[in-house]
Automatic annotation (TrEMBL):
Enzyme class: oxidoreductase
Gene Ontology MF annotations: aldehyde dehydrogenase (NAD+) activity
Residue ranges annotated for the Aldehyde dehydrogenase domain, each copy included: 15-486
Gene3D superfamilies: Aldehyde Dehydrogenase, Chain A, domain 1, Aldehyde Dehydrogenase, Chain A, domain 2
Protein's organism: Actinacidiphila glaucinigra
Residue ranges crossing the lipid bilayer per the database entry: none
Name of the protein: aldehyde dehydrogenase (NAD(+))
InterPro entries, per database record: Ald_DH/histidinol_DH, Ald_DH_C, Ald_DH_CS_CYS, Ald_DH_N, Aldehyde_DH_dom
Catalytic activities: an aldehyde + NAD(+) + H2O = a carboxylate + NADH + 2 H(+)
PANTHER family assigned: ALDEHYDE DEHYDROGENASE (PTHR42804), ALDEHYDE DEHYDROGENASE-RELATED (PTHR42804:SF1)
Amino acid sequence: MNSDGTYGHWIGGRWHEPAGAHYPVVNPATEETVGRAPEAGPADVDAAVRAAREAYEGWSRTSPAERAAILERIADVLASRSADLVPLLQQETGATIRVASSMQIPTAVDRFRRYARGALEPDTIPFAPQPVRASPLAPGGLVNAAAVRRPVGVVACITSYNFPLVNLAGKVAPALAVGNTVVAKPAPQDPLTCLLLGGIMREAGLPDGVFNVITGSGAMAGEALVAHPGVDMISFTGSTAVGQAIARAAGASMKRTLMELGGKGAAIILEDAAPGVLRSAISAVGSTWAFHSGQICTAPTRVLVPRGRYEQVITALEQYARSLTVGDPVDNSTVVGPLITAGQRDRVEAYVAGAREQGARVVTGGARPDLKPGYYVAPTLLADVTPGMAVAQEEIFGPVVAALAYDSEDEAVGIANGTPYGLYDYVFGSDTARAWALAARLRSGNVGINTVQRHPETPFGGFKHSGIGRDGGSFGLHAYSELQAVVW
């Protein structure tokens, strides 16, 4: 990085000047340039993949203990840089200072520490000896075997803009723990902290070329990375539309894929929800507004309510939304900050306008806050939404909640399952056995019962158009490895 805030790619353990130009990374709250990221061309992508390929043989043959020690040191160095990195992360993402300081660097540090331990997890599954009769193939005898997890090779990690460093750590840490090398391509909107991760890893003792970062303002860099014959696996977090394009391209050369795509979470409030459970449900649904302005794929953006309790829930949600402070994300009192770009703000506003035209009732929000500069959207609650409306079917990725009424549990399940997505749903009820049984009917990779809290060891991923594969905990180690059967 230059003193004027101009960054290079991180390739082969050093800064690499781009073949092309640079593009501005803009603060969503101030609309000012935070820094200038490098624009990758085909030569830059090729250089990064070649560096990762050349480093693979050595890194994949290091001992698990050595990989664990380096990952632990990466966590240490990253934690020590928190005071410098948090302001940059906050500026390029537009996250509130509370989210940036508590859930960006600390969570990334936790993920490196988790997979430092993960590098030491057993990678061999032994099988009991089997007596095998002689055949034309081979003599008979007692045959032994084991299944061993091996690294996939060079992994392309392509990440989303909402939690740039956290998302990248969640991919890179397990990939390195297993023995893979990585080429990272962060989202174009906020790649600067991810670029700095290269130097942090080098300081921690990661060999040159094991981790590389390229960036670009458009689709070209990602497309070239996906198509490169030197890439063995693509791990992608982002929209379903982009994920589908990646899957098509990866299929041509049988690259392995891990896809964490869009969501349209449903929070089903059951008829038996006692006052305490109902308060939990209101707070959980309110996280769509209060947590990173709804820019999170697991958000409960649809709330499904028994018809007899519908207006009660609408009133409670309206009060919650109106209590939230919208404004400058560096102000400690701010709960709802800006969206990532003007284009995303306009997209969210178009969804709200479309819902109004289709007959939805805008209970609160729906008008642009009187805040300039910045890409702000007010917390918006839409009532009288029907299952076929676009706001009930499509991922909005903003602070918008759609409320739908239902008359039976079967109808609620049908509405919840009635979108192309299946990432994260929620059930709120006092009878948790009933909620557990209902979870089995939801076509969703994750179900929260009376909570939106996550468990870090669970497998994370989606059904249907919400993705392919699972990461998280030990499942992340499985995702970045291949099983090899060894027989003797």
